[in-house]
Amino acid sequence: MMEEKKILIVDDEVKIVEFIQWQLDSVYPKIYTANSADGALEILKSDIIDVLVTDIKMPGMDGIELMRQALALHSDLQCIVITGHGDIDTAVEAMRLGAINYLSKPIGIEELGLAIDRGFERQHLIRSLREKQESLEKTNYELRNEIIDRRAVEQRQEIINSILKVSLLSITLKDQLEQILHLVMSISWISLQSSGAIYLCEENSDMLRLMAYHNLSEYQISRFQAIPFDKCQFGRSESKQDIIHSSKCDYAQICTRFMEIRPYTNYCIAIASNDRLLGVIHIFINASYKLNYDEEDFLKSIANTIAGIIMRKEAEEKIANNYMIQNVVNSILKLSIEPISITEQLEKTLDMLGSLSCFSPKITGCIFIIEKDKPDTLVMKAHRGFNPQLLKTCRRLPIVRCLCGHSALTGKIIFKSALDDTHEIHYDGIGKHGHYCVPIKSKEKVLGLINLYLNEGHVRTYLEETFLTSVANTLAGIIERKLAEDKIDYLDKLKRRLRKERDLFRTYLEIVGVMIVILDLKGNVSLINKRGCEVLGYREEEIIGKDWFDNFLPHRVRESVKRIYLQIISGGIAELEYVENQVLTKSGEERIIIWHNTIIKDENGDIINTLSSGEDITDLKATQQLLYEKSKELERLNQDLELRVQQETKRRFDSEQLLVQQSKMASMGEMITLIAHQWRQPLNAISAIIVDMSDAYECGDLNAQYIDRITKIIWEQVDFMSKTIDVFRDFLKPSKLKVNFDARKSLEEMLSMFEGLFSKANVALTIEDNDNSETYIASGYPNEFKQVILNMINNARDAILGRRQNVLQSGVVEDKITIRLAKNNGKIYISVKDNAGGIPDDILDKIFEPYFTTKSEEKGTGIGLYMSKTIIENNMAGRLTVKNIDGGAEFTIVI
What we know:
By secondary structure, this protein is of the alpha+beta class. It contains 25 helices and 29 strands. It is 48% helix and 21% strand.
């Protein structure tokens, strides 16, 4: 049964010792602990310890002195030093004494475990070599006792011992093989005048590569650099994994001939371990040499010793390279959390690769990324040492082109030790080189590619590919995280933009003078604006989510309205664009609303909800009913009819102010005054007819012909009054569709309705046009356009009337408002200019802001000019500006 390995952990901090023991206990059952150097020495004196893990700084004897005394007790003890106050001199001293690793606190348990494992492996190798050495020494002793006069045996032992000493030197494997070959060639029966070489199997290929040589000419060195398996005698020795001897120069078996070839005796000794061929020793001996089996056994011993050296070197290199790989990967991971761009991270990664000895000391290479919007193109994000011409050519490289494109397409590593036909891209002065093309992959999806230049003839190794694959996998995680962060940033920006648009939309909803209600497919309220809450008398939170039909409609109409709604959203009937029905307020009052309904669909054409805008026409209905009733009383009116009409008009003015949206409320009273003015003449005419009818009755002239005549006159007057109502109602009705309209005609229609107001105020209102035959066709909403003009001329009139109150009038200045029309480059220019003194400079840039007004609260809301600018610039894609000129203000519209 294999003896269990023993570990001694020494640290004056008890908790650290207990923590390390607890972490390692499940892996290494034989763990001893001590809290001082003296305690550790007692354990070392009483038991054989394999690995010592000691702190440097301890009270009394420190870790360095402990190592000295411990190694004096056990020369093969493997020491690992740890410290929280490390410095270079301490590290050098520890490593000089024989420490195999130097770790800084806090200690990574995985890193410590790797160091301990490395110590066990190193001790095993040393003990194995010692056992072999002891075995050889025993054999030497026995041979010396048996054949004391055979100096050759002693020489063999000396050579073996020397080889073992060489194996312990801290030099490269190539240097070790060169020294070992020199020792072999010093054997007397071989002669230093003979030639020899050591070949090692090239990784991932069927080739033997020259690693060490003795007495070979330049030609031979060049010719024998690489020998394929099964070629020539020393190439074929690999198939037998045994020694091959030829006592004569058999030219028929020589495949690698050279000019200096001469008669010789040939030895080819396979270097193998556990049925694995590692290389071949090839020795040319003088042709007079005769076969000696004892010497063959000796050569096999040398081959076995070299095999042990190679295996140990491989193990050490594997541990060192794994450590190197982990360090590089950790450094790249640290880069990923730095606040730098992905390009800077990739450039620093290239710099790290350039610092490794296995690649060219002056790194040349680049890193590509496949961008989301161009999946068939490699985009160079980082580069080092590139020729400017090549940099321009390879900045964006189509997949499948050249080595990089083919590697990205297949998702496999491509290695080239030199330029060949597969290297498509060339340029003047291109140097000889090889390539590693390593895809950066995540779950078989290629995200990019690492391209590294190599010195021509570079040997491909499994370790290098493993390392580059680890780097590529690490970069894949960084790239994916960066893409995820970019996506999150994009979504955050999108959310902020949507939130801003939502807030702006909410602002529009709150300032609009009509109800806005959105219902989902079940009839529940998803959204309602401020005006809707005011009409219903509820707070917003009392309405949202409630069933519209069950909570806000009178009981008698709920079922019928809801049934029609469900038929509309199911597609059973067409939507009702305009509909009039009652709503039930919180106080139990019923209000009459005229609705404009719109179905909202998603991108697939499926209905998702409905949007309705409604105006409260309850007072309008009451006024209409009142007007109807008053028209019935016309025949009973007496001489004071005009006074009654004025009273009725005033009441109607007060009620009609609730009819239209907020932006038109300021002008509503004046509109009703105009209606009364228009009605005055037909009412006087009807009054005169009534008086005349009374006289005709008394005089007996009330016959059928008379009645037909006066009836016709009355109907003409009533028709005139009805048309007057229609004209003003059309003006108040919002335009729903964008149409082409004649701007001049719209101005004339609007002025025909309101010129009475300006005449009464003694303000001249005129339209000027350079060419009366010119047409001014604009695209937009005609009624909203009229409202904008009305806002401007009303503001101008108010400014003129305000000036009259503050300035004594001489009667010389003519108060006037001028509207000018012009066309230029396909644009229509409408300017409204007054002579009221202009707008103060300190508020000129504020007049278009919502709720900004210089008027008193009862005369202005501050919404007119804001809505005017919104209508012209947002809805009609035009421009509205203002400036002071010639003693007044001038508003200019460009559409």
